[in-house]
Amino acid sequence: MNAPIPTQTPVTVLTGFLGSGKTTLLNRILSEQHGKKYAVIVNEFGEVGIDNDLIVNADEEIFEMNNGCICCTVRGDLIRILEGLMKRADKFDGIIVETTGLADPAPVAQTFFVDEDVRSRTKLDAIVTVVDAKHMLGEIDTAPEVLEQLAFADLVVINKTDSVNLEELAAVEARIRKVNPMAAIEHAERCDSALDKVLGRDAFNLKRVLEVEPDFLTEDHAHDHDEEIGSLSLVSDTALDERMFSTRIRQVTQTFGTEILRMKGIIAFKDDPERFVVQGVHMLLEGDYQRPWKADEQRQSRLVFIGRDLPEQVLRDGFKQCQA
After folding, report:
1. What is the CATH number of the domain that holds 159?
2. Cα distance between residue 69 and residue 65, in whole Å
3. How far apart are the first and last CA of the chain?
4. Is the overall model pTM greater than 0.85, yes or no?
5. What does the pLDDT look like over 227-262, one tens digit per residue?
6. Is residue 287 part of a domain?
7. Which of 83, 124, 183, 280 has its CA 20 to 30 Å from the CA of residue 104?
């Protein structure tokens, strides 16, 4: 008799620059009556993500909070904390990892790919980045962390929208799109986004990722170059050779992985009835078949890279060589 496959607990990584409002969002998740319990891992105790008075006993890593949520503060390695949480996984519905305002979310995201035990028991649901509508444009020019946080985001919550006019808000949204055309965007005042728009997005689920076809994957949006971080979209109406694509994409991620922050794509392989979905974080790569191509659907391959100083010609040439 086979052993039962353990249930994977969804994990939301909550990030955002200093003062963006992610603490407000986290406190809402912990205090609102939504019928779910969340374990919270705070990236750094010195910059406590939850108000100090909410943490009833800082000596304990895990404890029940007044609203029925569980909270734990990181004292050591993230993997160790996650493994501890998994021993009591039946006590909560999901995990939230709050990074510090100056953190690059990549190492946190990579944890859920690299460690086999963590990978089998948890699944990265989404990276949610909170930005301050009033100050984001200025912060991007002075704080590289803001660009990193935007580049990795599956969802960007533009907070404090009541502090800007419509023209300023449009400029903020345009800059976010320039850095990360793949992210969903929510507007909020005091982080009042509906929690079902923030949690349980399933953005890292290969069966669902890119199910809602993003309109940015067109020839018209072939390349956006930011001062530090930009995106490159590649499109092919010719089916790709599966072996060649597998070889090339691995070469690219191994060679340029430190520059490639995020990568997502839908691929049409020659003589294959199913759509293949691929995504990556730095040098980590994942791919799986999503669903059969529909009869009225154009079998088009589309691949998007977000990164720093992307080797545009190398990526274009490699993609072209994969055409069957």
Report:
1. 3.40.50.300
2. 5
3. 44
4. no
5. 567 788 888 999 999 999 999 999 998 898 888 888
6. yes
7. 83
pLDDT digits (tens, 9 = 90+) for 192-235: 888 888 988 888 765 554 444 444 333 333 334 445 677 888 88
Please give the full DSSP string across 190-242, using - where no structure is assigned. TT---HHHHS---TT-TTTTT-S--TT-SGGG-EE--SSEEEEEEEESSPBPH
Task: Give the Cα separation of 43 and 103 in Å (integer).
Answer: 9
- Are 43 and 140 in the same domain? yes
- Asked if residues 281 and 306 have their Cβ atoms less than 8 Å apart, the reply is no
Domain that holds residue 169: 9-198
Q: Domain with 315 in it: what CATH number?
A: 3.30.1220.10
Assess whether 119 and 227 both reside in one domain: no
- Residues 296, 238 share a domain: yes
Instruction: Report the alpha-carbon distance of residue 259 to residue 282 in Å, rounded.
Output: 7
What gap in Å lies between CA 319 and CA 235, rounded to an integer?
9
Cβ proximity of 266 and 214 under 8 Å:
no
- Position of tokens 């190492």? 107
**Residue 3 forms part of a structural domain:** no
**What is the reported pLDDT for 75?**
37
The single-letter DSSP state of residue 47 is G
Give the integer Cα–Cα distance in Å for 214 and 219: 13
> Domain total for the chain?
2
Rounded Cα distance between 178 and 137, Å, is 12
Q: Are residues 138 and 178 in the same domain?
A: yes
